[in-house]
Specification:
TIM Barrel; alpha/beta; two-stranded antiparallel sheet; eight-stranded parallel barrel; single chain; 10 strands; 220 residues
């Protein structure tokens, strides 16, 4: 399951970290100051971590340089996605629903495609083939009727061995299992949300620090 682009396979380089579901300035700054490489903003209204475009733009303005700003969408319309892009300086889009490659590729902003693993008919490799223009893929836990944020891990042995683009691992990651996840999967990046929270959408700066330290220690 080792990708040729895995950060952990490169000497002296740690696995990248995305902290998703940012809703507050203090959480955005805590994540950035702890060394997070990317922050995720959820544009999916049913989520308890959702923000609107105006709020996300405010949060982006407090960030220091060199922190990626990722917008998460779930089967939004093209006009809804573009309305956010017109206001929020996103550096990357994360499509987390059933979006086609044609849909994802119509925007000027690069994207990664999320794929849920663990359903009755896993077609991870096929979905990757269908989205050839994606910069990378994020693998999350399948739960019927829930597009993400389940707080549960999936069977990592189901990850295809021939992934040729950067892989982000998500789904139930926290301080106590991220070391094992990185060791077994060697992803390019890990994505955490609930694992560093006090409650949905409210991050814990101490959990963020501990998570970042655990990831850093994996590269030593």
């Amino acid at each position: 399951m080792i990708s040729p682009n895995s950060a952990s396979s490169q000497s002296g380089s740690r696995t990248r970290v995305k902290i998703c579901g940012i809703t507050r300035e203090q959480d955005a700054l805590a994540a950035a100051h702890a060394g997070a490489d990317a922050l995720g903003f959820v544009f999916y209204p049913p989520s308890p971590r959702a923000v609107n475009a105006e709020r996300a733009a405010e949060l982006c303005r407090v960030l220091p340089p060199f922190v990626e700003r990722v917008g998460l969408f779930v089967d939004a319309s093209a006009s809804e996605v573009q309305a956010v892009l017109d206001i929020v300086p996103l550096s990357l889009i994360q499509f987390h629903g059933d979006e086609s490659a044609e849909f994802c590729e119509q925007f000027a902003t690069p994207y990664i495609k999320a794929i849920r693993v663990g359903g009755d008919t896993d077609d991870v490799s096929q979905q990757m083939q269908d989205h050839k223009a994606a910069l990378g893929f994020l693998l999350d836990t399948y739960q019927k009727g829930v597009p993400g944020g389940t707080g549960k891990t999936f069977d990592w042995s189901k990850i295809p061995a021939d992934i040729d683009k950067p892989l982000t691992l998500a789904g139930g990651l926290e301080v106590d299992n991220v070391n094992q996840a990185i060791t077994e999967v060697t992803p390019y990046a890990v994505d955490v949300s609930g694992g560093v929270e006090l409650s949905a959408g409210i991050k814990d700066p101490e959990k963020i620090k501990r998570f970042m330290q655990a990831v850093t220690n994996c590269g030593r």
